[in-house]
Known about the structure:
Bound molecules: adenosine-5'-diphosphate-glucose
CATH topology of the largest domain: Rossmann fold
Strand order of the largest sheet: 5-6-4-1-7-8-9-12-11-10
CATH superfamily of the largest domain: Glycogen Phosphorylase B
CATH architecture of the largest domain: 3-Layer(aba) Sandwich
Strand content: 15-25%
Distance between the termini: 17 Å
Helix content: 40-55%
Shape: globular
Amino acid sequence: MPVLDQYLADCKFILVSNREPYEHVRGVEGIEVRQPPGGLVSALDPLMQRIHGTWVAWGSGSADAETADELGRVQVPPGDGSYTLRRVWLNDEDVEGYYHGFANRALWPLCHLLIHHFEFRTEFWERYRAVNLRFAHAAADEAERCTGRAMVWIQDYHFALVAEALRAMRPSLFIHQFWHIPFPPPDIFRLLPVGTHVALLRGLMGNDLMEFQTERHAMNFLECVEQFVDGATVDRDRRRLTYQGHTTYVDAFPISIDVARFTEMANSARALELVETLRSRYARDDRQLGVAVDRVDYTKGIPERLRAIEYLWTTAPELRERVTFLFVCTPSRSNVPAYAALEQEVGALVTAINEQFGTPDWTPIVLVNSNVDADLLAAVYRAADLCLVSSLQDGMNLVAKEFIAAQVEEKGVLVLSRFAGAAEEMDDATLVNPFNLDGFAAAIRSALAMLPDERRRRMRRLRAQLTRSTIFDWLESILAGATAIIDAQAGPRPAPRKSEETDGHPPEAGP
Ligand code: ADQ
């Protein structure tokens, strides 16, 4: 990214996210450093190292405080120290209210349209506001330390109020935000109490650029602003809105994965060994292996998937023993009651299905309840004849992309919920509606029956498309979009068009 590197080299780049890139924890042998798993950190960490940025995040590790200075600053990566991690301290009440409470019990279900899980409590909201303000102060303080220009990039729904607060503190900052999850349409968004929904929208409108996974989510956001924020002007065609003299650009930037890394992992000697073990254990003769990989979350449609499989074996007994499913599920947010209940439900459903259909030498569904290293996941994906992704709603869904990247033999079929953002770019997947029990079962059935040539043709196209849009392309297009707006904001002002309200921003600026 030479042009961007050049731009970012003389611009202080401040990233704000809930999770930190390095966590210090006290172990039996002293303090250890951990890097949380996940594609985002592994994609952004090299960028931050190259441009010497600052990463503002919750200091969640047990030894985080003692390894940072009095402001919570520590140089990372350990031993190299090429960028600053600024830790924000949260106490138990903060975590309970801001994170488990408002972010995960109110915004998460609301944005995924699963309103029966939606819970609003004023105390959660108050904590969320207070914590967002604390993050805004930390980012403003980091921006204060640089003499030149600065850009702040906020991640996700944990921080809907940061941009507005930050802009009030430092009006000249360029602020943008990536929203990783869906954004709901107005009829759902208005389930938030009056005042709260407008406060959230105004918070996000503090950004110069709002980035969503899909066009649909971007449009939902614009529609919410149009309906609920008095005085805001929304231009859907140009994807922008203006409020109190400030313009926010809005666009879709579908996230991806480090494709080369996943492909490499799938080709490693360790992976090949595991592929062989998996296939000899679960896919002997011409039995097929279906896989599913998820955080245990009610948005991922795990019970719906299990019921579809149960329906398949009930209505098509000839398919029993023809396919084994391996579910690799990592428990998640277990201290939120709905998640603990879901873990139990999934366990009970798997047991019931295995009791109903299992035979002495066939376990229909193998449930692995653990967080598995990425290189092992790559082997699981490579070994599979079928991958089931059944989200009820999903911003993107990276599992679908990881499966494609690891399918080096091009023999697997991706069965993908049409309600995952990923479905909007994947015509060659077998798309399903996870709420449609028999339709879902029929799709699994036709995926199992798909001939090798057809599988190869589809997977080849999916892989070609994925290779053209990796996480690095995503990052580059976001930063290019942001810099285009900055340049246009700074450049000579073209004469405003009669029909257009420019509010001081050039009419053609935009990503
Ligand atoms: P998530 O809801 O976490 O992400 P997803 O995109 O599927 O959903 O990513 C899950 C990640 O966790 C994948 O990288 C996967 O490999 C990993 N994972 C899942 N189960 C695992 C297991 N058992 N062991 C180890 N790793 C496991 C949110 C949004 C998504 C959006 C992403 C990125 O909800 O819609 O795609 O952010 O923007």
